[in-house]
Amino acid sequence: MTVTPPSGAERLKHVDALRGFALAAVLLVNLRDLSLYGFLSDEARAALPTANWDNVLNFILAALIEHKAITIFTLLFGISFALQLRRHVLSSGFPMFYVRRLLVLLIIGVVHGVFWFGDVLRYYALMGFVLLPARRLRPLTMAVIGLVIALFPWSVFQQLNDFFNRNALPADQIAASTLASFSSSSLSEMVRANLCYDWSIRLTEWSFPLAVLGRLLIGAAIGQSEALVKPKENARVWWRLLMVTMPIGIALTVPASINNAATLSPIFGQTIRGAASLSLGLAYVAIFLLLFRSPLWQRWLSPLIAVGRMALTNYLLQTLIAIILFYGVGLGIGPRFGLIGALPFFVAIFIIQVALSRWWLARFYFGPVEWIWRCLSYGSLIPMRKNLQTI
Q1: How far apart are CA 346 and CA 343, in angstroms?
Q2: Cβ(274)–Cβ(212) under 8 Å?
Q3: Strand segments (E) across 144-294
Q4: DSSP string of 62-91?
């Protein structure tokens, strides 16, 4: 298989920009835990001087961004699979290339998960294997199967949670212990606590990989459509999607954002929350692509393109920067400024990523981690640096 850097015709700028947008939203949500605010007890949060503002921001995140951000990010992974399949449709070596690509991503995700329990790359890699046999399905069939998997009320198997967590400590004790370890200056203690917390979450949220798989299949179905490749010519499709998903998402968001409310069925509560996040996630995608048709909006959103092209590098870099800032092994800022205090850090981190990504891609074809990923996937050394005379 011949490897060459993607040309402008092969890259879809609106997809790269959308990926950059999703990455910004993921950072905003992840900073809730990366700043260690998510591990504080209710009493500790209430004692912060920023408590009132924190409560408002926490509700906004839960209602409008949390789960929607990772939904868009996951849809985009499925979309990327479909776009790669379109490029290599005549290549008999695509399946093996894609398997190697997933194996490398799995290794990256496992290493990342050692330091950040919220890593999602390993689940993309594992669930991504299902996309290979599913590629022969019609897009509509793939989307329907994805919806069924994503929205199935997995909580009917509640006994699995009881079985997995029969010896688990109470959640507040786990959070307090994890906070203490993350605030310590010992790297080994931080890693140990991270692995323990990661394991406790996976036992509680064992159906999360299935939710990922459902969204991957939906994304792959979208990636096969001409509406994605040519959004300007297919604006009506995106308007229709928006008109369907936005009302559903808004209608479901209110009960879905109220935890442990009587309005949520103990069995179907997970499905309601999943449907709300999936509906609003798809609505956000439609809004973004409709806005990107406008030259004015395209100019405003264009800085996101470079971030999106280096999404893997930037995703890992966000974790590294946050650990240096907030954890005890770094500067140890911790949650002292509350959730609202994480916003300036979010703005600063993402602005830096925009600037670094544009600077890097002016000189190199790929981000550093993307380059390593490609080289290992193709099994050959790929040219990385651009001709300096073109800069």
Answers
A1: 5
A2: no
A3: none
A4: IIIITTHHHHHHHHHHHHHHHHHHHHTTT-
Furthest CA-CA distance within the chain: 65
**Tell me: the pLDDT tens digits for 268-288?**
777 888 899 999 999 999 999
Q: Is the pTM of this model over 0.85?
A: yes
Token couple for 374: 């490609």
**AA letter at 10:** E
- Read off the tokens for 255: 């009960």
Per-residue pLDDT of 5-62, as tens digits, reads 454 445 789 999 999 999 999 999 999 999 999 999 999 999 999 999 999 999 999 8
**Residue 117 three-state SS:** coil
Q: Which residues contact 9 (CB under 8 A, 6 or more apart)?
A: none
Q: Total domain count for the chain?
A: 1
Is residue 387 domain-resident? no
Helices (H), the chain: 13-34, 42-47, 51-60, 68-87, 94-115, 121-128, 131-134, 139-151, 158-164, 171-183, 187-204, 208-223, 226-229, 235-256, 269-292, 295-301, 303-309, 311-326, 342-361, 368-378
What residue numbers bound the domain in which 336 lies? 13-363
CA distance 349 to 32: 14
In a domain, 198, yes or no: yes
Q: Which of 233, 234, 247, 310 is nearest to 282 (CA)?
A: 247
Average pLDDT of the chain, as a whole number = 88
In a domain, 126, yes or no: yes
Residue 87: Cβ-neighbour burial (10 angstroms; 0-12, 13-18, 19+): exposed
Best CA proximity match to 67, nearest among 103, 35, 28 = 28
- With respect to residue 380, please indicate whether it lies within any of the assigned structural domains: no
Mind listing the pLDDT tens digit for each residue in 286-344? 999 999 999 999 999 999 999 999 999 999 999 999 999 999 999 999 999 999 999 99
Place of tokens 């911790």: 334
Question: Counting Cβ atoms within 10 Å, is residue 173 exposed (0-12), middle (13-18) or buried (19+)?
Answer: exposed
